[in-house]
Amino acid sequence: MDDELTSKSTVLHFQSYDQRHLASNIAAEVHNRLHDLGIEDKVTSVTADGATNMANAFSSLDNVDRFWCVAHRLHLTLCNGLCLWKKFKKDEEELNNNNSDLKDSFDAKTTFNENDMEYLQEDDIEKETTD
Q1: From start to end residue, where is composition biased (Acidic residues) (predicted)?
Q2: Residue 6, strand partner residues
Q3: What do you get for the CA distance between the two ends of the chain, in Å?
Q4: DSSP annotation of 86
Q5: For the chain, what is the mean pLDDT?
C-alpha cells in the first residue's frame, strides 16, 4: 500500500515443476525464495489451497501460518455444488473399450475434497467442456 492507501501487488516468484508437487520440493523452494528475498523472518502467514502437500510444505516453516485461499474454496464449492465435475480419461477409455454399446455414458467422479486429486497426474484429467 502506498501513502494514498492504494493497494499495490507484485509477483515475487513463479515456480513450475516437471515432477509431482511434493511437499518437500515446495517447502524447499518457498524457503529458498524467502531467503533470497531476505524476508524469511518477516513472513508470518501464507495463503494456499487446501491440498495435503501444501499443508505439509508450510507446516515445516517455523512461525508461518497457512490459510486456505477463500477464492479457491469458493470455486471448489461452486463446482461441486453445480456438478461441474471432471471426466477421467482412464474411465472413459475403459468404458469405450469394454462396452461399445454404452459409449455415451461414463463414470463421473466428484471430488468434494481437493486432497482426493493430489495423487493424479495432470494428464489423467480431461477438463470438461460445456456444450
Answers
A1: 115-131
A2: none
A3: 43
A4: B
A5: 75
Q: Cα–Cα distance between 122 and 105 in angstroms, integer?
A: 23
CA distance 1 to 33: 22
User: How many angstroms separate the CA atoms of 66 and 50, rounded?
Assistant: 9
The grid coordinates of residue 59 equal 507446516
- Cα 22 from Cα 57, distance rounded (Å): 8
- Cell 515443476 maps to which residue? 17
Whole-number Å distance between alpha carbons of 88 and 94? 10
Q: With b meaning 16 or more CB within 10 Å and e meaning fewer, what string describes 39-58?
A: ebeeeeebebbbbebbeebb
Task: Tell me the mean pLDDT in the region 17-23.
Answer: 87
DSSP H or E run through 98: helix 89-98
CA gyration radius for the chain?
20
Asked if 110 and 121 count as a contact pair (C-beta separation under 8 A), the reply is no
